[in-house]
Design brief:
The protein has 170 residues and is α/β, with parallel strands linked by helices. It is built from 4 helices and 9 strands, in the order ββααβαββββαββ. It is found in: Cytoplasm.
């Protein structure tokens, strides 16, 4: 299946000069969504995660589907102030400022095997911060999974040395 044909390009979003890779067209295609979920699970099964951590917000979609297929639990990592219970937090640098990610303190036990999932890797900043948060809790990071990888931005080189799976490269 030609996955790139199911991903829409939107020029100049969210600002001029950016080419946005829109996955909503993939999500609405039942056959494409089923195919990409099965392919993702096939490529991640050997990592044997106990938990899939999905980054806000599109990581929730693919992370949940993947957790289901792998028989793992799903844990959301959210932006600051979005989770109702006690949280662990991590601040990280953005191109123009800082941001913060949070995870419930009771979401994971130390030594849990964790796979981090998102729809896209660009520079790797959010994925690296999520990995730092997972390691800070004492979990074993078994890998990363992304639907799309923007190779020119070289985000992969900023990630820890674990398996990195991406299904579509631009």
């Amino acid at each position: 299946m030609d996955l790139k044909s199911l991903i829409r390009d939107i020029p100049d979003f969210p600002k001029p000069g950016i080419l946005f890779r829109d996955i909503t067209t993939l999500l609405r295609d039942a056959e494409g969504l089923r195919y990409i979920t099965d392919l993702f699970a096939e490529k991640c099964v050997d990592l044997r995660p106990e938990f899939v951590v999905g980054m806000e917000s599109r990581g929730f979609i693919f992370g949940s589907l993947l957790a289901y297929k792998l028989g793992a639990g799903f844990i959301p990592v959210r932006k600051k102030g979005k989770l109702p219970g006690a949280v662990y937090s991590i601040e990280y640098a953005l191109e123009y400022g800082k941001d913060c990610l949070e995870i419930h303190q009771d979401a994971l036990q130390a030594d849990s095997r964790v796979l981090i999932v998102d729809d896209l890797i660009a520079t790797g900043g959010t994925a690296t911060a999520t990995a730092d948060l997972i390691v800070k809790i004492g979990c074993e990071l078994v890998g990363f999974g992304f639907i799309i990888e923007l190779q020119d931005l070289q985000g992969r080189k900023n990630l820890p040395d674990v398996p990195i799976i991406s299904l579509v490269q631009y």
